[in-house]
């Protein structure tokens, strides 16, 4: 069940949009290990996982080659 407040928080009525466009609800799948790593990165960067993905998609972060293949 989705909390109605969660959906309401996606609406930006009365406040400016941070990136100039509205966000859409997306869905992704990730392993527990991958999610834990994302949460740790989020804490280290003091950014939400959503903000990190947005920045990656906009080319604002530089990625290096993976540590393992």
From TrEMBL:
Residues 17-28 have a biased composition (Basic residues). This is Uncharacterized protein. Residues 1-31 are annotated as: Disordered. It comes from Stanieria cyanosphaera (strain ATCC 29371 / PCC 7437). Keywords: Plasmid.
